[in-house]
Design goal:
Elements (H helix, E strand, L loop, with lengths): L5 E6 L2 E6 L10 H15 L6 E6 L4 E3 L4 H4 L4 H20 L5 E5 L2 E3 L1 H8 L2 E5 L3 E3 L13 H9 L1 H10 L2 E3 H7 L4 E3 L4 H13 L3 H13 L7 H12 L3 H12 L9
Parallel strand pairs: 2-3, 3-5, 4-6, 5-7, 6-8, 7-10
Antiparallel strand pairs: 1-2, 8-9
Bound molecules: coenzyme A (COA).
Length: about 260
């Protein structure tokens, strides 16, 4: 599919989605959010895609935030709608995909950019990355899940400080906070993410999507994550992947998962 603001390419089981507005530091305008929704949805439904990597084009930014020029004149109602629609179309959507999503953070990840990275299943960054939630410097708060996911990842105190100061932290600080899993050079970023994807692809896609549901259940209000884990665990026993995984182990051979 042709997009105006993003690129999407599948190779060897990995779909790489690149946000492609480098002149605006890949800021998320309405059209980009819609296109990202479509690209993530298409990749998630594509049997050739086992892992999704999302990154930004250029060497400067992953995403420098929501596009400020689009909402500067919004009123209360439009502000609320902006957050609700964005969360439904992109941020909650990505978090709940059954295909693993890795954020390859190649530079600034600010505001909506850090919120997108946090909605992904985990994050790897290049050593030039700078991340933060600067919204209060604009008189607004993070509206794409940042007030919820940042404390989940770094703890309440660090999240409060990052949000209140509106400051940026560098990649190594974010690594030490647990916000990033790995920091590598800019040249290594995509190859490194792809090497993790290769490790993921050796395993059962059905079991991985069940694991995503169970882990996410830990962070959903009113949901008993242990119960979800029991259900998802039980369901695995009815899958062809389980038969193949256990049979291959007992036969002392490598499993070839059918993904069913
Ligand atoms: N929304 C809209 N446009 C943005 C943007 C955003 N979030 N972030 C950057 N841009 C645009 C700039 O307006 C500029 O466009 P122009 O060349 O047409 O004037 C272009 O991207 C380059 O940005 P610039 O500010 O010139 O780059 P810089 O290297 O001097 O600074 C940043 C980089 C990231 C520090 C700075 O762009 C910035 O603070 N951006 C906003 C971050 C933010 O508050 N995000 C949260 C939004 S809720």
């Amino acid at each position: 599919m042709a997009y105006n603001n993003i690129l999407s390419e599948n190779q060897n089981g990995i779909t790489t989605i690149t946000i492609n507005r480098p002149a605006k530091l890949n800021a998320l305008n309405k059209d980009t959010i819609q296109e990202l929704h479509e690209a993530f949805d298409a990749a998630n439904n594509d049997t050739k895609t086992k892992v999704i990597i999302v990154t930004g084009s250029g060497e400067k930014a992953f995403v420098a935030g929501a596009d400020i020029s689009e909402f500067a004149d919004f009123d209360v109602e439009n502000g609320g709608k902006l957050a609700a629609q964005g969360q439904a179309l992109l941020f909650d959507f990505v978090e709940n995909l059954s295909t693993p999503v890795i954020a390859a953070v190649n530079g600034f990840a600010l505001g909506g950019g850090l919120e997108l990275a946090m909605a992904c299943h985990f994050r790897v960054a290049s050593n030039n990355a700078k991340v933060g939630l600067p919204e209060v410097s604009l008189g607004v708060i993070p509206g794409y899940g940042g007030t919820q996911r940042l404390p989940q990842l770094v703890g309440k105190g660090r999240a409060m400080e990052m949000i209140m100061t509106a400051g940026m932290i560098d990649a190594n600080t974010a690594l030490s906070f647990g916000l990033l899993n790995h920091v590598v050079s800019q040249e290594e970023l995509l190859p490194f993410c792809e090497s993790i994807a290769v490790k993921i692809m050796r395993n059962s896609p059905v079991a991985i999507s069940a694991a995503i549901k169970a882990v996410n259940a830990n962070f959903k209000d009113g949901v008993d994550g242990y119960k979800v884990e029991i259900e998802q665990f039980g369901n695995c026993f009815g899958t062809e992947d389980f038969t193949e995984g256990t049979t291959a182990f007992l036969d002392k051979r490598k499993a070839e998962f059918p993904g069913k």
